[in-house]
Amino acid sequence: MELTFLLSNLLEDPSDFIIFLGRFHPLVVHLPIGFLALAAIAQWATGQPKFYSLRPFLIYLWGLGAASAALAILLGYLLSLSGDYDTDTLFWHKWSGVAVLVSCLLCYLVFKKQKDNHRPMQWVFVALALATMVYTGHLGGNLTHGSTYLWEYAPNTVRTVAGLPPKKEPRPKVTVLDSADVYLDLIAPMMEQKCTSCHNTGKKKGDLLLTSYASMMKGGDHGEVLIPGDVQASELFRRITLPEVHDDFMPSEGKRPLTQQEVAIIEWWISSGAPPNGFVTDLDSEKKTIQTITNYLGLDKNTVLSREVPPANQTTIDSLIDDGFIINRLMKDNYLLEANFSLSEKPIALSSLDLLTDLKEQLIWLDLSNAQLTDASLKKIARLDNLMKLNLSGNPITDKGLQHLAQLTHLESLNLYHTEVSVGVLELLPKLTRLQRIYLWKTKVTDSLAHRILSENKNIKLINNRQ
Amino acid sequence: MSKYHNFMKRPLSRREMLGICKGGFGALAFTSLFGALPIGCDRKKPIASKPDLYLGPHYLPKAKNVIFLYMDGGVSQVDSFDPKPRLARENGEDPRKKFKVDATQFDNVGKILKSPWDFKKYGESGIPVSDLFPHIASCVDDIALIRSLTSKFPEHTNANYFLHTGSGIQGRPSMGSWMTYGLGSENKNIPGYVVLDGGLIPPGGLDNFKNGFLPASYQASILKAGAEPVANIAPKEGVPNLQEEKLRFIEQMDHSLMGKMGEVDAVESAISNYELAYKMQSSIPELTEFSDETKATKKLYGFDSDDPHTRGYAAQCLLARRLVERGVRFIELTCPNVGADRWDQHSNLKKGHEANAHAVDQPIAGLLKDLKSRGMLEETLVVWTGEFGRTPFAQGTDGRDHNPSACSMWMAGAGIKGGTIFGRTDEYGYRVIENEVTIHDLHATILHLLGINHELLTFRFGGRDIRLTDVHGHVVKDILA
Q1: Which domains does chain B have, with CATH numbers?
Q2: Which of A39, A334, A377, B158 is an S-S bond match for A61, by CB 3.0 to 4.6 Å?
Q3: What is the Cα–Cα distance from B24 to B37, expressed in whole angstroms?
């Protein structure tokens, strides 16, 4: 009496322990799949004389299949008590699972009775068992991963057969910030990556759907999860910012949490009123947010390194080496080059600078220190717009030559140590958007000028002394 | 193979043919001995076409050169970069009652010994440094400090071999040899791997700097910072051209020998070494002539110090910078002889460490600042380490014994995240308890910064493709920028 009371009590309010057991369902469920597949194969094989000797064992395979299916059904039932699953699919999954068990038992009984196990009639039972198993398994997959999971990457022909619309063309990768849409390019991909594996039409944990803007705004069991303009009141934001060990933390079950950057972007989106669309740059946002988004979308990466470049012309390289250059490959799987003139014993020839232009595609590092370069010769360097590192130290160059460098927008490091440059640097730097380091010791850049340069170009490391 | 068939002419095997095509330059070197081909101790690099055998960095390098500041004898970590207040609290107590004490070299375990120096926090990063290194302390924001280096050997010779070659046993190629082998040298007139002799050759001797089974061109050349940096660098011949005539004669002899023996490293390397030695007659005096350095630069390094050892090490450091400017790949500085038996203070810790620190502190800081101001630190990796650490308890009353279980070291420059501390020791600084960095990890990290995947830089010897890191080594990613 007490036991049944306890049990019924448990069934109404399933304790953690029951769900704990239930979570073994996805593991155990693979046993009947394996056993039944094996049984069917063995069934077929024992038709061949070579495998006659296996016949007595066939029924055990069906028996094992039935037993494991029974266990899987039991655990599956316990798991279903958590109520996290789409009820329709669950209903069919449950009963087709039972059908697997029944057809297994039928096979078992039939083969036990009849020793001659190759009558066409018997194949009907085998086929039934296999068919119900495949169907049940498919529904189970839909429950866990969402009904679109299987066909998501299927070729369009397959998708049409399955009665699905052709694949969604992925949104073209954002290449400029101005074209980034706040929901489609930021929020939706984030949800897809981190949230929709549980909050989809099949699984709908907490009755919350995060697959579209409308369903997001609708909320879940506990009402709305997003309050436009109010970050603190938004349950979604609370859940993703709790400590990871907290029960309410999302994504749960040890799935990969959102990164700090993603959280920051979601926070900004909610506080800007959680708009369903609109260009990022149209929304009123601080410089810091723009920076975060630029970085999140990978727009601030130097694209120089990601290009595949063709090998450089060997004749050009040979002539440059004859002119006193050292030319090195910089990586194994690409033909990017560095050119170094600093060890040359001769002054640089203008013709060499022309030759360098032939290496424009490949050349990313250039060292022309102490080469007696003039302002005019810098004009030729301006064409090398893939340069990431440029060393012009020890050359009598001035602001006049410096202006030619404005086109080198991929520069990360510029060495002007021991040159004649001064205020020209102030004009140049805003154009070199990727510049990280600039060396200005022994130039005409005074401390106060350096200060000004730094205050106008915050992210730059400037070295103009030896302390 | 041909080693065992000396003086027998026999056809080239397929294997040898390939070997010569990929690495042999003997024949080319003959033609270039007095010519202009840039060969030196570098290998000919096919750049444009896709070569079967790729030479050069595997991925975009951060560092082009390495300056290895070797602190011979083992600096005490708890007196330099790893402050342990508990040592002061428990000063004079029996360490055996506090923790398990490993066997020490001299089996003369004394009491827990607090550091005779105070620590202060420096820079924006606030890394604590002891009063031993006030100058280096001013550069902490450019330094990544590793407090968790360990060694496998508690004794100098093996520990030195381990640190330099990745193996505790004599005979393996030194890391500098591996790096010049992997990347070649930029300068055709100066060797790619140079050891600047400060006066003390570390225990284990020159085998620390040898090429092992790598071609002999990749061994270290030892330079002294002084009047005659390399022995017999000035030609002795009174008659002009006599030296060249002699060399031409040797060239003929070698040529006929090569005809008989095939391409043997001993001959190939001898030829390239002769060639290089000839060029060094002019390149070395120019290198070691400091007259074009300003007074301020010399002062920065410590040339005007009262301490002759500081002056000596300052010259080494300045020379190191000049070598980097000339494209030398790997430069190791050994310690000056301050009369305290290296950093190996088994007794008289205070006096010995102070003398050593005084000699190296200002020159090293000068080097770092000088490199930084010229933009060279961006491409140069500076590594500072001993072969192991020292015990937190005394040996006798006022010394410290060897301790391979914890050692502090630092790196600065190319690709290094300045102002970082990595790894942790226990409250006594005796053992590493977090993020251990082995010598193999250190080698893997240095190679990584040079753009080399330590698992891909191999040389076939004894039937195996052997690496500097053997079968070990993980890049310490946390200290990388």
Answers
A1: 65-230+310-479 (3.40.720.10)
A2: A39
A3: 15
Query: In 10 A of CB A404, how many CB atoms?
Result: 19
Task: Compare all CA atoms of chain A with the CA of B186 and give the residue at the minimum distance.
Answer: A326
Query: Residues of chain A whose C-beta is under 8 A from some C-beta in B?
Result: 305, 311-314, 317, 321, 326-332, 335-337, 340, 342-343, 391, 393, 413, 415, 417, 437, 439, 441, 463, 465-467
Asked whether the beta carbons of A420 and A398 are under 8 A apart, the reply is yes
- Residue A21 host element (H or E): helix A16-22
Quote the DSSP letter at residue A187.
I
What number of other Cβ atoms are within 10 A of residue A282's Cβ? 11
| Pairing assessment for the beta strands B389-395 and B399-403 based on DSSP bridges | antiparallel
Amino acid at residue number A448: S
**Nearest by CB: A439 against B300, B327, B375:** B375
Q: pLDDT (tens digit, 9 = 90+) per residue, A227-265? A: 888 888 888 888 888 888 888 888 887 778 888 888 888
User: B196, B131, B154: which is closest to B361 by C-alpha?
Assistant: B131
CB atoms within 10 A of CB A40: 20
Q: Which two tokens stand for residue B163?
A: 């640190």
Measure in Å the smallest separation between the Cα of A331 and chain B Cα atoms: 4
Task: Mark yes or no for CB contact B327/A326 under 8 Å.
Answer: yes
Q: pLDDT per residue over B7-61, tens digit each?
A: 444 455 555 555 555 544 443 433 333 332 233 333 444 444 444 456 789 999 9
Give the amino acid at B410. W
CA triple B136-B141-B145, angle to 5 deg: 70
Which chain B positions have a beta carbon within 8 Å of A450's beta carbon? Answer: none
DSSP state of B344: -
Peptide bond into B38 cis (omega under 30): no
Cα A233 to Cα A224: distance, rounded to the nearest angstrom: 10
Tell me whether strands B119-122 and B399-403 are parallel, antiparallel or unpaired: unpaired
Q: Is B59 exposed, middle or buried (0-12, 13-18, 19+ CB in 10 A)?
A: middle
Closest among A313, A315, A341 to A327, alpha carbons compared? A341
Q: How far apart are CA B154 and CA B168, in angstroms?
A: 11
- Asked whether the beta carbons of residue A331 and residue B374 sit closer than 8 angstroms, the reply is no
DSSP letters along B266-286, please? Answer: HHHHHHHHHHHHHHHHHHHHH
Q: What is the pTM of this model?
A: 0.72
pLDDT along chain B (481 residues), means of 10: 43 56 44 31 40 74 96 96 96 94 91 96 96 96 97 96 96 95 87 91 94 91 80 79 86 82 76 84 86 94 95 94 94 92 93 96 97 96 97 94 96 95 96 96 97 93 91 95 88
Chain B residues 13-52 with CB within 8 Å of chain A:
38, 45, 47-50
Phi, psi for A204 (deg, rounded to 5):
45, 50
The SS3 assignment for A467 reads: coil
- Looking at the complex, report in whole angstroms how far the Cα of residue B43 sits from the nearest Cα belonging to chain A: 12
- Asked if B294 reaches chain A (Cβ–Cβ under 8 Å), the answer is no
Bridge-based pairing of strands B193-197 and A437-439 is unpaired
